[in-house]
């Protein structure tokens, strides 16, 4: 199955001209929620759904514990989760402290297997849903349907 992409016209505010250009964006279908994901894992693995849910909850809880301690967490075949942050810089040494941190984030570094999947991904151009200048194209993730 290919990832559908479409062409949209976007305004790029990098300079004063606010140039409008065409760019491809993913036409994401849905967000897969916890229940359907666990259903799929149970079906593929042959393991009881309740056990799959318990293991996934346990994995997330354990990851949370290690990440709070400052550890990176590597999940074989999936990738590594790395706690990180952005902090303001200063010429004065004493001005740089914990209050300099302004954004905490969790970086994800995919495994070699997932990178290979991404690098071999096929794309399907959706010409029908592309470039209607009268409609706004957000390309954002919040407008995606959800599988519940």
Report on the structure:
The structure is a single chain. The chain is α/β, with parallel strands linked by helices and 148 residues long. The protein has a domain at 72-89 and 99-120. Helices cover 27% and strands 30% of the residues. It has helices spanning 34-45, 49-68, 112-119, and strands spanning 3-11, 20-26, 31-32, 73-75, 79-87, 101-110, 123-125, 146-147. The chain has a three-stranded mixed sheet, with no helix packed on it. The protein has a three-stranded antiparallel sheet with strand order 4-5-6. Strand 4 (73-75) and strand 5 form a beta hairpin. Helix 1 (34-45) packs across helix 2. Mean pLDDT is 86; it is low at 133-141.
Main attributes of the structure:
148 residues; alpha/beta; 3-stranded mixed β-sheet; 3-stranded antiparallel β-sheet; 3 helices; 8 strands; flat
